[in-house]
Amino acid sequence: MYAVFKRELFSFLSSMVAYITIGIFLLISGLLLWFFPDTSILDYGYAEMGGFFSLAPYLFMFLIPAITMRSFAEERREGTYELLITKPITVSQIIVAKFLASLVLVFFSLIPTFVYCYSISKLGFPEGNIDSGAVIGSYIGLFFLGAAFTAMGIFASALTKNQVIAFVICAALCAFAFLGFDYTSQLPFLQNFQNSILSFGINQHYASISRGVLDTRDLIYFITLTVLFLVFTKVTIGGKR
User: What transmembrane ranges does the database entry give (predicted)?
Assistant: First the structure.
C-alpha cells in the first residue's frame, strides 16, 4: 500500500499539472483575499479570515477535481491498472493509497495559506488580534471538506477513462453536495423539511465547524461521507475488474 501511495504522490509532484493547479488556487485565493474590491480584507477592515474560508470551498470545487481526475482514469487509459491489480495488494488498499496521496497534495496546497493568517494577525490592532479559535476550526473544517471532495474525485475518476469527464463529474458532485441541498430545501413544497434537508448538505456542517465549534456530529458527517464515496469507488472498481 505504501508503494502505491508513494508512487501516486511522486507522480503528482513530478507533473507540472500539480504545480500549475496549486499555483492557480493560491493566486486566485490571494487576489480574492487581498486585492478584489468586494472581497478584500483591506477594504473590510477587520482582522479575520472569514472571507477566505467562505471562498475556499468554491476554489476546492476546481482544485480537487484537477488533482484527482487522473487517479484511476489515467491508469485505465494507459493500461497500467491491469498490472497494478496483479500485485499482492487489495482493491481497498489501492483506493486508500490513491485517496491519501491526493489528500496530502490538497494539504500541501493549504500550507502556503498559513501566511495569510500570519499577515492578518500582524495587521490587526492591537497586533495579534485575531480569533485563533475560529481560524483553527475553519482549517479543520476545510481539511475535512477536502477529504470529502477528494473521495468524490477518486470515485469520479473510477467511472471513466477520460480525465476531462472525471473532472466534470467530480466538480458536479462537489457542487451538488455543497450547495444542492441548500437550494433543494428552498423549494416551496419542501419547506416543512427544510432543516432535515439542510443537514444532508456539506455547507451546514462546514459552517458549523468554521465557527470554531467542533461538534462530533459534524465530524461524523464528514467521515461518513468520505468513507461512503470510497466504498462507491470500490464497488465501481470491483465491477470493472
Answer: 12-35, 55-73, 94-116, 136-157, 164-181, 219-237
